[in-house]
Amino acid sequence: MFDRWYAGTLREKLARPYVHLVFGARQTGKSTLLRELLPPETVIVDLADPQERTRHLANPGAFVEDCRSLPAHKKGQFVFVDEAQSVPSIFDAVQHLYDRDKTRWRFVLCGSSARKLRRIGANLLPGRSFYHRLLPLTLAEHPADQPSIPYAVSPLPFAWSKSLKQENPFPVADLLTRLTFGELPGVVAAPEPDRAELLRAFAFVHLEEEIRREALVKDWGAFVRFMQLAAAESGQIVNFAAISQESGVSQPTVKSYYQLLEDMFVGFRVEAFSRSSRKALLSTPKFLFFDLGVRHAAAGLTATPDVVKVNPGPLFEQWVGIELWKRLQYLGNGKLHHLRTKDGAEVDFIVEWEGTLTPIEVKWSNKPTVQDARHLLTFLGEHPKQAKQGYIVCRCPRPMQLHEKVTALPWFCL
User: Are both 216 and 351 inside the same structural domain?
Assistant: First the structure.
């Protein structure tokens, strides 16, 4: 069992007498982590098992009957339901049981898709539950192959909790490996010759199974064409018209497909920054896949270092964006933006965190110059009260002060 950054927070919150909802994409380690943290007497209902799923779909009252038959436990009997979204009536059953006795059971519901629940209006237990989300590995969990630099300052610090020691980290990895295989725990821990096949299975077998099971897409072939195009364009400003024309489906359908990827936790939007005095700002979001390895497989590419070496810069930019997004998701109260004007001025990412704005450029260079910081300096000048410092994340060996307000930061210090 490798260490997960969120383990300490999850362990502490599981001790509280509420229903716990744990969501995230498949293969992010949700079930593994929960089985490690929950007590051994926990009752497990695995709805990924077709027989178990069919039993509960055929008899919505079975879950209530099963729970009532359990012996009372002085600290509450933990009941862990895996892939809970596949039987939405489970949520109503949990609400019914919890409202009648808040101490007898301790429910933990885990799932990999919010789409069906939202579509049918399933009860997400407002006022009774804690929401958790598990993501692919962060840099804190999957260490770099470079030694840390104590004086380096991150634009979004993400240290381990003092109450949780990192005793069993995932294997270290260099930048090329990260850009090639991504950060899914099962892929990172697998032998390198197996990683590309695992990613291919995730991109098509798992997604197809979930989409077909929930009847979310009528034309699987059209969705596959869309997904390949969306993956190839990942990290770019979304062009709905171009994707529609190339995939052969309407723009409303393209937008619904992007929403589907978000609902299945395999992609996210980076909204355009709108609080600027500059005119002619583009307002369209960027869209990124949540993991670069999955991105390659979804684009129809075999994840190999050669794929990355063809054009590493855009993939490096995506890796930085994904890392920042994961941190903000865990920290819980920040936003990630991008900025681009019609005349080409661009800031790759803007981190909004605790009342501050931090503009970040990403460069593949290992020798950045102040010229690379020109758009950062413009942004800092436009927002002097909120934006104090800008960063260029790059491949330089150590932090470099390019300007009194701009630091070049090695990727492994992010």
Answer: yes
Query: What is the separation, in whole angstroms, between the first and last Cα of the chain?
Result: 25
The per-residue pLDDT for range 332-372, each reduced to its tens digit, is 889 999 998 877 778 999 999 999 999 999 999 999 999 99
Q: Which domain holds residue 116?
A: 7-133
Name the residue among 338, 122, 369 with its Cα closest to residue 238. Answer: 338
Q: Give the per-residue SS3 of the chain.
A: CCCCCCHHHHHHHHCCCCEEEEECCCCCCHHHHHHHHCCCCCEEEECCCHHHHHHHHHCCCHHHHHHHCCCCCCCCEEEEEECHHHCCHHHHHHHHHHHHCCCCEEEEEEECCCHHHHHCCCCCCCCCEEEEECCCCCCCCCCECCCCCCCCCCCCCCCCCCCCCCCCCCCCECHHHHHHHCCCHHHHHCCHHHHHHHHHHHHHHHHHHHHHHCCCCCCHHHHHHHHHHHHHCCCCECCHHHHHHHHCCCHHHHHHHHHHHHHCCCEEEEEECCCCCCCCECCCCEEEECCHHHHHHHCCCCCCHHHHHHCHHHHHHHHHHHHHHHHHHHHCCEEEEEEEECCCCEEEEEEEECCEEEEEEECCCCCCCHHHHHHHHHHHHHCCCCCCCEEEEECCCCCEEEECCEEEEEHHHC
Final residue of a structural domain among 133, 157, 189: 133
The pLDDT value recorded for residue 48 is 87
Domain contains 349: yes
184 and 264 both lie in a single domain: yes
Between strands 334-340 and 346-353, the pairing is antiparallel
Statement to judge: residues 266 and 391 lie in one domain: yes
| Prediction pTM value | 0.92
CA 345 to each of CA 293, 374, 375: distance values in angstroms, whole numbers, following the listed order: 29, 9, 7
Residue 247, pLDDT > 80, answer yes
Residues 216 and 331 placed together within one structural domain of the fold:
yes
Residues in the chain: 414
> Distance (Å, rounded) from C-alpha 105 to C-alpha 214?
29
* 402: amino acid identity, one letter: L
